[in-house]
Design brief:
This protein is mostly helical and about 120 residues long. Helices cover about 50% and strands about 5% of the residues. The protein has one domain: Zincin-like, CATH 3.30.2010.
Length: about 120
């Protein structure tokens, strides 16, 4: 995918299209007292507020696929983690955004290593 210079524009467009809010603010995590382990290469969604909070990514494709994953969490609240990754990728495809194989592989790894926020390690 070559459009990643425009991640912010894409996320703003999608947020408008699907009726969600997006927070992209690195200070958010620092102010919340979070550890980098909790917000690097990770994003979050607050379903009740239809809000997506984008973590910090070095790779823009990872950022964007994570955005679509969180979007799917909001649009399909009954889906499990795996279904949500799959649906997020489908939503992206419906919007002409196709991820590279490396990014899809990373998404599968995220899915396989997922632990719910309150689970004990
Ligand atoms: Zn998830």
């Amino acid at each position: 995918m070559r459009t990643f210079k425009f991640n912010r524009e894409i996320m703003a467009l999608m947020a408008n299209r699907y009726g969600v809010h997006v927070i992209i603010n690195r200070d958010y995590f620092i102010e919340a007292g979070m550890h980098p382990d909790d917000f690097v290469d990770r994003s979050f969604s607050i379903k009740a507020d239809r809000t997506i909070i984008i973590g910090i990514y070095n790779n823009p494709e990872k950022e964007l696929i994570s955005f679509f994953h969180e979007l799917a969490h909001i649009l399909y609240p009954d889906y499990n983690e795996r279904e949500t990754w799959r649906e997020g990728i489908k939503i992206a495809e419906r919007n002409q955004l196709i991820f590279d194989a490396d990014t899809l592989k990373w998404a599968i790894e995220q899915c396989d290593s997922y632990k719910p926020p309150n689970s004990k390690k």
